[in-house]
Amino acid sequence: MPTLLDAARILQEASHHTLKPLQNKEELLQAQSLLSDLLKAKRQEPSSSESLRPLIDVLKLYIQQYERQAYSHLMEKASPAEMLAYLLEEGGHTKRDIARATGIDEGNLSKLASGKRTFSLENVKRLSACFKVRPELFMA
Fold first, then answer.
1. HTH cro/C1-type domain spans which residues (predicted)?
2. Residue 8 sits in the same domain as residue 69
């Protein structure tokens, strides 16, 4: 679990980088990882919440902007099933990997990705957390 010292380390690392809109998938993954670390540190040390809030807010904004821009063509046209299939293929993940990470069994993942099963709210939550995307991508 992150400590206040971890939060300080995270902030120091972040201060070495100019915060700017994300330009590619690598920067997106770095921002998501940093955001995850900051949120863990915030939960671990609630007293650090106020000092972390501006950085957390900026990272969330940049992540949302990148996703909106990068995936807008998919969001307009893709069904939840197509989105899941795309994310599985794009990320190089197997259904087995995603099943382990989400608790959704492989058979159900196959049915979801092929459009033979509708997405439950719980599936949407688990998949969006696993792929680190907005839940709306899995909603019709």
1. 94-138
2. yes
- Quick one: average pLDDT of 73-94? 80
Query: Domain range holding 45?
Result: 4-73
Instruction: Kindly state whether residues 25 and 9 are assigned to the same domain.
Output: yes
- Claim: this prediction has a pTM higher than 0.90: no
As a whole number of Å, the CA-based R_g of the chain is 17
How far, in whole angstroms, is CA 25 from its chain's centroid? 12
Asked if 41 contacts 6 with a C-beta cutoff of 8 angstroms, the reply is yes
pLDDT tens sequence across 6-60: 656 666 666 555 578 888 888 888 888 888 888 887 777 777 677 778 888 888 8
d(CA 27, CA 83): 21
CB environment 72-97: b (16+ within 10 A), e (fewer): eeeeeeeebbebbbebbeeeeeebee
